[in-house]
Records
---
Amino acid sequence: MCLGAFMGQLDASIVTLTFPAVQREFGMSLAGVQWVSLAYLLTVVGLVVSAGRVADAVGRKFVYLQGFVVFTLASAACALAPGLGWLIGFRVVQAVGAAMLQANSVALVVTSVPPQRMRAALGVQAGAQALGLALGPALGGMLVASAGWRWVYGVNVPIGLLALAIGRYLLPRTRERNAMEQFDWRGLLLMIGSTTGALVAVSAVSGLPLPAWAAITAMVLAAACATGAVRWARRAPEPLVDPALLRPPTVSAGLIGAFAAYLVLFGPLALFPQLRGATPATTGLVLTALPAGFAVAAVVGTRLLPRHWGGRRRERLGAVVVMTALAALVISPAAPWWSFACLGVLGLGLGVFIPSNNAGIMSAIPSGRSGTSGGLVNMSRGLGTAGGVAVVTLALHLGRHAESASAAPRIALLGLLAFAVLAAGTTFVHGRAEFQGSSEREESSMTASAAGPLPALVARPDESALAEAIACLRRAMRRAARATDPANTLSVAQLELLSCVSEHPGIRPGQLARQLRLAPNSVTTLVNGLVGQDMIVRGSGEAGEDRRAVTLTLTAAGHEAVRSWQATNTDILRAALADLHPGWQHLLGAAMPALEELTRAIDTRADSPAQSSSPAHA
C-alpha cells in the first residue's frame, strides 16, 4: 500500500520539472505542456469515486492490482511518447490506473487492520505519501539533468512491477462486497462534468491562458453538472454516490476538512518557488521541511500523543498547530530558516490532523462501501491540490502591484490560514462522531490475539429486553410509515399479508396463516377485505368442493402497495441508521450474522409446537 501511495505522490510532484525539457524537445508553448498535468488531474478526480464503487462490487484487491498494471504500462508508454499529443493521451491512461490505485489505497488499509489500529495505519500510509512528495523535486531534478525527462516516467516501471508482485501475495482478498446490478453511467458523466468544469475554472484563475468566456462556461458547466448529479443521485436505483453516505456529519464535515487540509498542504509548494531572491537549492531545502514534518507526525503521532485522546481532540490539536505555523509564516515569509522551521511545524500539524480526520470518515461508512468512501477522500485531496495552487496564484496576482515585495506572499498565506480555520471549524460540527482507538486498546488487542483465542462469553441477552426492543421497533416503524404516507388506508397487518403473498405468489390461506403466525379466521378476514379493495385475487378452488385448494395472488394495485410500503420502510431505516453514532453502526454491522441466526432460531421454535411447549426448550 505504501508503494502505491509513494508512486502516486512522487509522480504528482515530479512531472512539473519536465516541462522545460518537454517544451524544448517538442517545440511547444508552456500553455500546451501544462495539459500534461491538467489532463492527468482531471481524469483522476473524475474517475476516483467510480473506481471505488466498482471495487466495492468486484473486489478491492483485484482493482488495485489492475491499477498497478495500467499505471506501469502507461508510464512506460509516456517514456516512449513520440509527441506531445501522445504524451497527453498516455497521461490520461496513466491517470485511469492512478484512480484505481487511489480509490482503493485507503479502503484496503481500513479493511486490513483492526478498527483500533486504523488511525495508526492511515498515518503510515500518509507518511509514504509525504515521502514521495518530498523526494519528487530532488529526484526529478537529478533525472532531468542526467538521464533526461523520459526517465521521470521510466522510474515508475520497476517500482510498479515490484509493487505488483508484492501485492499479489500480501494484499487481502475482499470479504465484503456491495453488489452492483448496473453501473451509474449518468452519475459518472455528471461527476466528470462537474469536476472538470471546476478544475478548468480553478486553473483559469491560477493563470491558465483561457479567454474569459471559457472560464465562465467552465464555472456554469460545473454548477449545472453538480446540481444534476445531486438530483440524479436521489432517484437513481444504484447511484454512484449514495446520498445516505454523505448525510452523517462525520462524513460531510470530514470531507470538507480533508479538502481544506490538503489545500493548506499543497499551497506552500506552489508559493515558495515564486518568492524573489531565493535560489532553487534554498527553496528545495525549505520545502523539504513540510513533507518531512508531515511524515514524522503521521507515523509516530499516535504513539507520542496521550493514549486516551480521541480523534476529535487530535484533529483540534493538529488544526491549532497548523494555524499557529501559518500565522508565524505571515510575519516573515521570505526568511529561509524561519520559513524552514515554520513549514516543519505546519507539516507536524497536518500530519496529526489528516490521518485522524480520514479515519473518522472511513469509520463512519460501512466496510462494504469503503472503496467509494476512499474515492471521496482522494477526490477531496485532488480538489484541495488544485485549490491550493489557485489560492496562491490568485494572491500573487492581486499583490503583484503592491509596493512591498512581501505583500503578495502574505496575502497568499492569509488565504491558506482562512482554509486552516475552516478545517478547524469542521471538528466542532454538531453530530460529528468521536473516533476512538487509543494505543492502549491497540496494544491490548494485539496481546490478546497473540496469546490465543478469547475465552467463550457466558453472558446471555435478557429475553424480555430483547422482546421489548423488537416490539418498540415494530411500533416505531408503524408510526413512521403512517406519518410518511398518510393517504394509505391499509393496516400494517394487511400490508404484511400483501408482502407475504408478493414473496410467495400462489400461496394458500392455510400456508399464509402459518407464515404470519395468525389464526386462519384472521387471515380469512384480512383476505376478504383485500379482495374487496382489488388488492388480491383468489385462484382456482374457490367455487369447488375443496376450499383448501384456493390460491392467492396480487393484483397490480397490490404490487404497487407493497412496493410503496417497502420503499417507505427502507427510507425510514436508512435515515435512522444515518443518524446513529458510527460506533453503533459498526456494532450493528458486526451483529448481523448473529441476528440472522436468531431469526432462524425463532422461526424454528415457532414452527415446532411440540418443542415450544416444553419449558426447557422455551
---
Amino acid sequence: MRPGITQKVTVRGQGRTETEPLNCIDPDSFYIDWEVNSAWSLQFTAHQDGSLAYSMLDSQASIFFDGQEYIIKQAEPDANSGQDSLDVVATHVYFEVGRIRKYKTYVDPADNGKQTDVRVNGGTQIENDSDNGGDDSGDDDDNDPNSQKSTSQSKNGNTTTTTTVTKTDETKEDSEQENQVDYKIDDVLKYWIDGNSLGFSYQVIGDFPTARIEQLSDGSGTDMLSKITEHWPNAIIYPDNRNIRVYTQDEFNKDHNNRLDYEYNTTEFKWTFDSTSLTNEVMCIGGKYSIDTEVDTETDDDDGGQPANVTKSAQGFIDDARSYLGVPYVYGGAGGARGGNPRSGMDCSSYVSQVYQDFGIHVPAQTVAMEPYFHEVSSPQTGDVGFYGPHGGSYHICMFLDPNTIIFEPQPGEVCKEEPASWFYPSWVARNDQMAAIVGSGTGAGGSGSSSSSSSKTVEYYYFAPFMYRDEDSIKKYGEYPAEPIEDGRFNDKNAMIEYAKTKIQPQPALSVEVTTYTNFKPIAGDMIHIMVKSQQISTNEAVVGFNWYPFSGNNPTSVTLNSNAQNILDYQNARNKSLMNAIDLLKDQNNYSQPNNPQGILTITREEAKRIEQYVNQQNGQQTDEKQQG
C-alpha cells in the first residue's frame, strides 16, 4: 500500500451507516474506467486483512473515492498461495437511476381502488347524441383532430350539388407517430426523477432544442438516459453522484490548459482513422396530408328543369352533343354553368357543362373545377370526358361519343367538331357516375321522380417535395456516400428536416486517438487537451471522451481516448499531406545525389512515379485550397 491511500478510498456496507477506510487494496489493480455516455466504473483487488472494511466488500456496498460513490456489482473471492482476496467491480452510483420505474395508467381513474370489474383506462367510448332528425349516418371524421372539413353547396335549376373537401394530416395519423409529443430535455428528466425516493436530482447545462418523441409512459430510468442520448445526439451525461447532469458539448468540452506531447509526457499515440461509416448525402421524405373530395348530386325531375326532348340513353347523349356541332369557339363564352345562349359561342369547358346540364347534371364550366366531379378510368365509354394536362392542372377537355370518337370545342377561330380519338387523345379519361348511369339506363325522356349520384376522389400530397440533403464539402473531398433514406412523417417543415438530416450523416471519417502517458496523472472528462506529435507535424486540440486512470500505481500509467471533430480531422489530413510533401522532397534529393552527371540537379524518376506524385499533390492541394476557403 502507498501512504495516504487509506484516506482516499472508503467503504460503506449494505444497510450500514458508517464508512471505513480500505487499507487492503493492491495499488496496481485500482483504476477508474470512464467512457462518455457509456461506462463509469471502479475496479480493484483487495486482500484479506481481517478488517471490518474488508468484510463490508459485498454486493451493493458503496465505495467512495475522489468525491464520487460507486456501488459494488461484482465481488469475486479468490484463494491463492495462502492469501484470500476479492476482485471488486463497482459502477458509478448514477446507474442506480435504472431502479426508478414509471408505469402507464392501466385502470380508468374513476375505478381506482376497485379490485374487480375494473374498467380499462381509455376503454370507455362515449357517443354524443344530437338531434339530427333520426339520421344515424354520422361521419367518423367529424371529430378527427387530424382532419379539416369544408362543405359547399350549389343549385342549378333542378340540380343540387354538395361538395365536401376533407384535409387529413397524415403526419399525425401514422400509427408510429400518433403518440408523438414535443418535449424539452428537462421534461424527460422531470418525468422520471421528480418525486423519486432514491435521492436523484437533475441539472441541464446548455441550450437544447425541443424534440418530437413518443409520449412518455412506462419505462425505467435507464430508458430515460437512452431517450436523451437518442433524441439529443449532442447531449453528454456526466453526473455528480446522484445529480444527473446533462451538458451540451460546448458546455462540457472545456480547455483546462493541459498538453500531451509525444516523447515528452507520453509514450504512445495510436491514431484510428476510419471511413467505414462515411455518409454525406441522404434522401429526405417528410410528412403528408390527403385531400378527400366528395361530390353528391341530387336532381328533381318534376320541376321542369330538364329539357323534355333529351333521351336518357347513350344515343341520347350522342345526339345532344352533336346538336352543338358548328357552334363557334368563344373563350369564356356562354353555356352550362355560365348561363346565356350556348349557340352564341362556347369554349371547351362550357360546352361540356352545357351537355351535362341538358341531362340534369351540374358541373362547373372550368376544367380544374370540373375534376372533382369525375374519377379517372382506364378506358372510355359514351358520356366520359377527356382531360388534357395533369391532375389539378388540366387546361382543355373533350367528350367521348364512343371509345374511338371525341367531340369538343377546339380553339379560337374554329367550331365545335367531331374527330377520331387518336387525332388528339387526352392526358387522362374520367367518368361521372351519374352520367354513366344515364347512358347505360336506356330510359326515355320526361320521367318523374328524382335521382342522385355521388363521386369521391382522394389525393395525397407531401408538405414539401422529397429532397436530397448533401454535405457538399464532404462530397468534394471523398465523393458521394449515400445514407439510408430518412422517411419521417413528423416533419412538415423542410428546414426542420434539414437540421435533423445533418445529425444522421457522418460527413467526415471517424478519427480517434488513444494516448498512453508516462505518469498516472488525473485526466479530466471533456478536457480539450492540446496534443503535439512533432515527427508527424500534428498539432491540434481534442476532447477527452474516455480514460483508464490508475491513481495509486507506479507501473500502470494513465491512458486517455480523444475524440474526433471536423477541425482535428482537418489537422490530421494536413499533417499527412505535409509528410507526403517531405517524402517527395527527400525523393528528389536522393535522385539528385545518386546522379553525378546531373549538375543542374534535375530530378529523374520514372514516368509512373511522376504521374502518381502529380495526381496526389494536385488532389491534396485542391483539398487544402477548399479548406482554406471554408476556414
